[in-house]
Amino acid sequence: MRVSGRMLVIALLYLSNVSLFLAAAQQADEIVAARVLGPQWKQVSRRAGMIFAGTLLSTASQGDATGSAGAVPGPIPTIQLTFRVDKAIAGVEPGRTVTILEWAGAWNMQRPMTQGEHILLFLYPPSRLGLTSPVAGSRGQIALDQTGENLSHTVFEPASGIASRSGPAVKSQLTATGAPGTVSHATVSPVSVPPVSVAQLKRAIRSARSEQGRP
Amino acid sequence: MIRQIIRRRILMAAVLLGCGAVVCRAGGPAFVAGSGYNSGVEGQPLIWANGSVTYFTDQGNLSPILSNTQGNAFVATAFSAWTGISGTTLNVSWGGQLAEDVNGSNIETNGFGVVTAPADITASATGTPVGIVYDYDGTVTDAILGEGAGDADECFVDAV
Known about the structure:
The complex is a heterodimer.
Chain A (H helix, E strand, L loop, with lengths): L1 H36 L3 H7 L2 E13 L11 E2 L2 E13 L6 E7 H6 L8 E6 L17 E3 L10 E3 L12 E3 L11 E3 L4 E3 L5 H13 L5
Chain B lengths: L1 H23 L6 E3 L18 E6 L10 H16 L7 E7 L10 E2 L5 E3 L12 E4 L5 H7 L9 H4 L2
Parallel strand pairs in B: 2-3, 2-6
Antiparallel strand pairs in B: 4-5
């Protein structure tokens, strides 16, 4: 009787240690997620329809800028992006190829991506027109290192928002001294961060989504 | 000993000033010309011709609580924050209204996978170089950025 009582105490101590360890690990993951994605990280995680770490395979422009005259609707230029899903977090399956269509205006506001680059993406569910983009602009687009396992040591600070929805949406047509073409970001602010793994973020994201009953 | 401390302090002050200079460095163009521009201009800043911007505003209301007129005043005030900076040579003027109330119903697909919008807010509309859309209910943002992007709690990051 005394032995089984002692065993029970030991088991309880063991369980409490394990739960304390798990709680500490979860808290650590959440701190990391907040540091990388900002204080609204839970909202970003829950808002996304697709979250994955992937490799950019190709980009293709669609819709020309020749437009139309008068009242006839004109095309909106879009970019077709194809990714290989390396690590699925939500809304996609690992190993699959995902092709998305993004409005070129949104694409130009983000940090440039190059073919072969590993990236962690939080994407809105596609609109009724099939368009999507990273959640919260550049905040939903995180560069990974060459292994695709960790965040890039240098994370580029996302562009800040300009105005609210109640504020205006501006169709900017910046003109250089030549014909319109693609634009490049002139300045981005690199911010050094300690190593963060995709696995850590994945745990935090899944935990945040499960709080709302989302897979 | 005192001399050493003073020397260290001077060195420290110099380092801090140096760091400050790096942190405080501002300005520079937001965008530079990339591929597709005329040869020879790649890498050059994108600028407004003659430093002059003419913008056009939506016919609809800005939001359920801000009318079209209030929206126009809001936009004018926003521009004046930039044009009012001393030394600025940028001129901004209101060119009038767009030809329509841009909303979710006139952002469509043409049936061949091409997304279309009213002609005067597309990239080819040189007559209305800056079109300002009042996304009354977020449906325009939803249509072009993805479902949920036009929600009120996303507004600070998704207005473009």
